[in-house]
């Protein structure tokens, strides 16, 4: 069955009939709608987290609006068969199901966002654009700009953009003869306030906004692939360029007595920068049209080889075709006729969307639970597995180390992973050591990743062996292996960090750390830990507790100091473990 041309005039009574279009709408769009609605609570939580923690994603609602408007304007409203069979749509639906299940297991709001985006893309892939008769799926592209990157890559990207903007701004200030010095990404001008290049106020977040504008521009004006990629690449350049100019203007205006660092003037400077960046994108698109526009060669004038090159250029680079290439277009359109979705296909769609709906309802319960408690966090463990500690649980003096401060850090947002840290600050002869108990985690938690996400560069990571003296149930003494990880960090400012950490579980048993750590290990460990904690929690508790000692300073630490830190850490972690067992058995 071929797809009827969307330009055909339907009978006035078609919309009220129970024809193929009505059947398609009820049997195809309805299961998608149910699956999407079921995940809306987690999607709203995702948007809330973006607004609070990642201001560079704050224009996320505009991406949803853009997708809706583009899809609606190109929807084949007069088509008798609005949905058709599509292998790509089936693949996207399965991927959406996988991300929906991942949200249930991992409690990641970003997984729910990815699932919803894939579902919308899958639905649009079953529909044809009423003008081009091609798939409507490109209308969903604006949303994917605001899908947060995994493993903290978006934070890494923003940090790199901040550093690059700071360096470029410093060079411009040197050319302008304005005296200053830099401390990381903070610019200090003598006699003036410090200008921090931060995520929320530096304007570097407009990189995502400019990228979003570029994607909308590409989709709306149907730019070909080559020019689309080039235009998206230019968005990165213009974002960096305009934000550098913006940061540069703040101290320059301040020097002449005009403050644009705060309030309404600062907001207007940001909007002005964004507007100029959008105009630069428009200018770039026109320049690309000039460079890579279509070549119009009359038939028979360029020869067969020249005509072949012209076809390749027009179709791959400019995205256009010769007038003579339109011969037989009606025949090609007929070949593009879409086949209707079979009964088995509709049943499969209902089944997959039904599973997604159940997964969304389960995730929604976690969201409702999150907003019913003061911490407003998504729960991961089915029970509260934190163990309250007190200042006196660790010795006030350990040889030449003395406690000078104690604090408790309860993290208010996110999930219940690592929601509490008890922090003891020890003063040592050669350093200040931060010793903490962080809890809870499901299995191994790679602490070096957290330090890297906070701005430290990992220089080395070593797994070391150590023994733990234990007594079995019969009273016989022995020892078991309890390895630990030693890591060294650095910052561009010259600051050095030295970290020692290890974990134990609810039974007090040591957790063996991996010998090395990379993105693959992060993924595998995350799956194993989260599946264990989420699915098998009814059989045994998989929570773990992390003990760490961190020392920072300029100039680094010699071997004797490092060995002293390791020795004190091994004693403190054993004391912490014993105190945990004592507290847990006393309940």
Report what the structure shows:
The chain has 587 residues and is α+β, with helices and mostly antiparallel strands. The chain is built from 16 helices and 14 strands. The strands form three sheets. Strands 4, 5, 6, 7, 8, 11, 12, 13 and 14 form a nine-stranded antiparallel sheet that branches. Strand 6 (420-427) and strand 7 form a beta hairpin. The longest helix is centred in the middle third of the chain and has 31 residues, at 225-255. The protein starts with 19 loop residues before the first helix and ends with a helix. The model is unreliable at 1-22, 199-203, 321-335 and 536-540 (pLDDT under 50).
* Whole-number mean pLDDT: 79
Q: Level of helix content?
A: 40-55%
Number of domains: 3
Whole-angstrom Rg: 30 Å
Distance between the termini: 70 Å
Q: How many β strands by DSSP?
A: 14
Order of helices and strands: HHHHHHHEEEHHHHHHEEEEHEEEEEEHEH
Main pleated sheet: 9 strands, antiparallel
Low-pLDDT regions: 1-22, 199-203, 321-335, 536-540
Shape: globular
Structural class: alpha+beta
Number of helices: 16
Q: Kindly estimate the percentage of residues that lie in beta strands according to DSSP.
A: 15-25%
Quaternary state of this entry equals: single chain
SSE blueprint:
Blueprint: H1 20-38, H2 40-53, H3 60-74, H4 87-106, H5 109-125, H6 141-144, H7 153-175, E1 181-183, E2 186-188, E3 195-196, H8 206-220, H9 225-255, H10 263-291, H11 303-318, H12 329-335, H13 343-371, E4 397-398, E5 401-410, E6 420-427, E7 432-442, H14 447-453, E8 457-464, E9 467-471, E10 477-481, E11 484-490, E12 495-505, E13 510-511, H15 519-535, E14 543-554, H16 559-586
Antiparallel strand pairs: 1-2, 2-3, 4-5, 5-6, 6-7, 7-14, 8-11, 9-10, 11-12, 12-13, 12-14
Helix pairs in contact: 1-5, 1-13, 2-5, 2-13, 4-5, 4-13, 7-9, 8-9, 8-10, 9-10
